[in-house]
Amino acid sequence: xxxxxxxxxxxxxxxxxxxxxxxxxxxxxxxxxxxxxxxxxxxxxxxxxxxxxxxxxxxxxxxxxxxxxxxxxxxxxxxxxxxxxxxxxxxxxxxxxxxxxxxxxxxxxxxx
Amino acid sequence: xxxxxxxxxxxxxxxxxxxxxxxxxxxxxxxxxxxxxxxxxxxxxxxxxxxxxxxxxxxxxxxxxxxxxxxxxxxxxxxxxxxxxxxxxxxxxxxxxxxxxxxxxxxxxxxxxx
Lengths: 112, 114
Known about the structure:
Order of helices and strands of chain B: EEEEEEEEEEE
Radius of gyration of chain A: 13 Å
Distance between the termini of chain A: 37 Å
Largest interface: A-B, 25 and 29 residues
Helix content of chain B: under 10%
Mean pLDDT of chain A: 90
Order of helices and strands of chain A: EEEEEEEEE
Largest sheet of chain A: 5 strands, mixed
Structural class of chain B: mainly beta
Largest sheet of chain B: 7 strands, mixed
Low-confidence stretches of chain A: none
Number of helices of chain A: 0
Strand order of the largest sheet of chain A: 1-9-8-3-4
Shape of chain A: globular
Mean pLDDT of chain B: 92
Structural class of chain A: mainly beta
Helix content of chain A: under 10%
Number of strands of chain B: 11
Radius of gyration of chain B: 13 Å
Distance between the termini of chain B: 36 Å
Oligomer: heterodimer
């Protein structure tokens, strides 16, 4: 699986957009980019995933660069409840695609 | 829809004791997983199962055993608890293991071994 690099922490003001970056320069052509978050030691929660095109759902938007070496998760109007650790994961293919490899993620703190 | 349910939520064990962490899912998912998360760290895969009767080791299987007698249940067994097994344990399930399928997680079991 390709490795990912995320900032350790970020701050965002409530009501503003939160933009969380992720680098995955060794991603291969058939690997998806996933985002999960974990709120205060609860179970990880799926947010969104994508392959090449930008994706949007009710929680967030995912912007993937054309070369697929990096991506950005966008929470359009962050709330205090969005304070969490956000994990960017590249989902493997072939024999290892059963596994989600979680790194340390980015701690997003939304401030009032 | 309950999703993935783990019991107990909290447990304290003495060194050498044994216990079973329970996990059940009601989504008819074939694939189930056990992860552990140490303080300030990401999740590490302990064991996984691709269907009833089939299990395999993940990254950190030592000290644990699993079984999968039904599609719904995937219990994790600790035979001789050690302080190094103090962690938060998460069970997860997914419908498939294609790269385009998300996994759903339970709320975790916080285990302390003293």
